[in-house]
Amino acid sequence: MAAPLAERMRPTTLDEYIGQKHLVGPGAVLRKMIDSGRISSFILWGPPGVGKTTLAQIIAHKLETPFYTLSAVTSGVKDVREVIERARNGRFFGSASPILFIDEIHRFSKSQQDSLLGAVEQGTVTLIGATTENPSFEVIRPLLSRCQLYVLKSLGRDDLLELLHHALEKDEWLRQRQVTVTETDALLRYSGGDARKLLNILELVVEASGDDEKVEITDALVEERLQQNPLAYDKGGELHYDIVSAFIKSIRGSDPDAAVYWLARMIEGGEDPAFIARRLVISASEDIGLANPNALLLANAAFDTVMKIGWPEGRIALAEATVYLAASPKSNSAYSAVNEALRLVKRTGNQPVPLHLRNAPTQLMEELGYGQGYKYAHDYRGNFVEQQFLPDGLQDERLWRAQENPSEQKMQERMVSLWKERFRK
Known about the structure:
alpha/beta, 21 helices
């Protein structure tokens, strides 16, 4: 074999391309653009092995335009400028702009991305970037604004089966080995929507069968060859943010089973325990809040426990806090109150502190009225006396509003008993 199976099976036309019908199917946006013979700069965002590089190569072949490739892993600003200069010098009047394909564009630094701006804006090159990371985080805004963004999806079951059957029919080596696939569940499960991984697994299993005259691929054979499923989890990548998001939303949605599942995904993926613990503390404040103030205490205790006892035992404290938070009543009234207060501050500016609330450490301040008229709450019955605490003009603003849970309803009743009509609004 001169090249790996995945490389041998790389399609060269859109008709051979499998998956991403929403982009390259009949009437889809990229198909129309390619068929017209003119494309604008764009970025392909999707997980590994879904056809980003292949699609760029097919476009270049279809348009018969000069095609330059850079890898963000090995290229610097100098390489970018050299390619742009070659593209500028080699372009004929009226011809389509050369295509500059940058794989893993998210690995380019800000200065490297800046060096692309002029060439993209002037049409010196048509940029096609490929990234597995969220461009919102990894691509500078000026460059992102000059490119369309197209999202590629993990290949579905039907796509993977189509690719598998295509490989068995078309690849000469597989035909010579008389490979048959009688069970596909393990192949599909281990590939995880990644075309390259599917073909690599197929190749590995066949090669591991030695000189067998015929190779029958079953689920048991695949599992034996692979031993274990390498879980996909990139602590700095898009999947990292997706799983953390699912974790927090499961807690917020009061589903302890889902919350513990996503916790396990992070643990198995090697996530930093301190990161998980911090997210639990934030969730306790933002999503449980005053409906169950003990949630914040428990989340903090879990954080402290993880720091004290380390790993792997710390996972138990994280699981305890996760289940407790997910099963707790929910309220974001404190979160909403501080956001509303910030909006009020931005809208009204630096309002002066009422004189009676100001401190008076000097005689001059006393003479100016600082602190005069302030009523010390503990000198009054029930440790409360009505007076103004907000700035002048804002004294009737309501920022915190109780939500429908026993804890906050009790707090609301107390506020109404103290402040009467103000807290009935």
